[in-house]
Amino acid sequence: MLDALKAGTAARPKKAKKAQSGGRRWLKWIFLGPLLAVLLVQLYFFLMICWWTQFDPSSTSMMRQQLSALRATNPDAKLEQVWVPYERISNNLKRAVIASEDANFVDHDGVDWDALEKAYERNNKRHKVVGGGSTITQQLAKNLFLSGSRNYLRKGQELVIAYMLEMVMSKQRILEIYLNVVEFGRGVFGAEAAARHYYRTSAASLNATQSARLAVMLPNPRYYDRHRDTSYLTRRTGIVLRRMRAADLP
C-alpha cells in the first residue's frame, strides 16, 4: 500500500512536467508559426521575382482583382493587355512616366525616402493614408503581388518587395515590366493596350503629348478613362511635357 502511494506521488510530478513541456511547446509555436509563415511568403515573392528576370509575368495581383470586379457584372469580361518588349515601347512614354511618377528612378535603390517622408506628413495632416510617395519600383511591387488598399502594413510589405526587385532586376527590366502591367484604364493594362485603347496606335508610335497624357492618368486611370478632357489632365500634361527632357532612361 505504501509503495503504491509513493509510486503515485512520483508519477504526478512527471505528468506535471510533461504538461508544462507541452504547454511551452505550443506557446513557442504560437510565436514562431506566424514568423515562419511570413518568411515563407517572402521566399515565394523572391523566387517569383527571380523567375521574372527571364520570363514575362502572365498576370499580376492587380490584374486578377480587376478582372474579378469586371466579371461580377459581366461574366465574359476580359482584360486588354498585350506584352511588348522594352525596345518596342516609345522612349516618349518611358520619359513621361519617369517624369510624372518617379524623377529619381535611375538613381534610387527602389525607395525614395524623401518622397515617403513628405507623403507621411500629408497623411498625418489628413488623418488618413491619401498618398504613398511610391517609386516606380514600389508601384510594380504592389501591382505584382499586393492589393490596392492603403495601409501601413501593406506599405511595409511593398518596401520589402521593392528592395527584392532592385536586388535581382536591372532598372531596365523593372521599367519594362512596369510599363507592360500598369493599369491605364478600366480593364486596360500595359503600354500597348493603352496606346490602342486611347489613340489607336502602337506603344512604339506614341508621341510626346500622347505619352505625357497617359502618364498623367496613372494615379487614377479608371477615372480618367471616363473623364478624358478635364482641365487638370490638360494642365498636368503640359507640366510633364516640360519635365520629360530631363528624364533619364535606364
Which strand order do you get reading across the main beta sheet?
1-2
**CATH-derived topology of the largest domain:** Penicillin binding protein transpeptidase fold
Task: State the oligomer.
Answer: single chain
What portion of residues belong to β-strands?
under 5%
- Per CATH, the class of the largest domain reads Mainly Alpha
Superfamily (CATH H level) name of the largest domain:
Biosynthetic peptidoglycan transglycosylase-like
Task: Summarize the amount of helix as a percent range.
Answer: 55-70%
Shape: globular
Low-confidence parts: none
Q: Residue-averaged pLDDT, rounded?
A: 87
| Number of helical regions | 11
Provide an overview of this structure.
With 250 residues, the chain is mainly alpha-helical. The chain folds into two domains: 1-52; 58-246, Penicillin binding protein transpeptidase fold (Orthogonal Bundle). The protein is 66% helix and 2% strand. The chain has helices at residues 2-52, 61-73, 91-101, 113-126, 136-145, 152-168, 171-181, 191-199, 208-217, 221-226, 231-243, and strands spanning 183-185, 188-189. It has a two-stranded antiparallel sheet with strand order 1-2. α9 (208-217) crosses α11 (231-243). It is globular. The mean pLDDT is 87.
In short:
The chain is mainly α and 250 residues long.
Question: Any descriptors?
Answer:
250 residues; mainly alpha; Penicillin binding protein transpeptidase fold
Topology:
Elements: H1 2-52, H2 61-73, H3 91-101, H4 113-126, H5 136-145, H6 152-168, H7 171-181, E1 183-185, E2 188-189, H8 191-199, H9 208-217, H10 221-226, H11 231-243
Antiparallel strand pairs: 1-2
Helix pairs in contact: 1-6, 3-9, 5-6, 5-7, 9-11
